[in-house]
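Can anyone check this?
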Amino acid sequence: MPNASILTRLGLYVQRDFLSAESCQQIRSEMVTAVRAAAIIRPPGQAGGVLDEKTRRTGIAEVSASTVALVEERLRAMKPVLEEHFLVQLAGWQRLQFYIYEEGDFFVAHRDKDDTDPTAPDWVRARQVSVSILLNDERGGRDGEAYRGGTLVFHGHRGDRPGTGFAIPLEGEEGMFLAFPSDCIHEVRPVTSGRRYSIVTWFI
């Protein structure tokens, strides 16, 4: 897991086996049969969200309250850990989003919070720490639910020097928990085969 180690040194928080393989399998099974809605984006300068499949294409599964409660129980235990790691006070988290990326789905480089946008609604401005929980990986897990592509990539700059940008792809694992500052630039590259499952939320 070398790239996860690099991201940790850059200040991100990574925890392996946050969810068990059995839990990941159960959640994937529920997600694939659940009602889905298309994910939207909020363009800079606009307060509301729009559907823009040139910028983002993924589905959001509507899972049961018991599945949400299972994940939230684990998140509750993570709150003091993240407060210590990021040196912030956290009140809680926003509604969990259960994402399914089908073949060809993606999300271009973006920030979950942008303090330079005066039109951003309060619920966006409140975000401090973004969380992504990976529910499968390229190995496929117990049920062979593997995917290719769909890499989560983080972007940054080395100091203030021009031309020193970098992009670090995460070598994800089933059950992995990843947390990072909500103003960090990141993207999900297009899935080339299979389905990519993840859970996303934002601590406030």
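Reply from J.R.: I decoded it. The first helix runs from residue 2 to 9.
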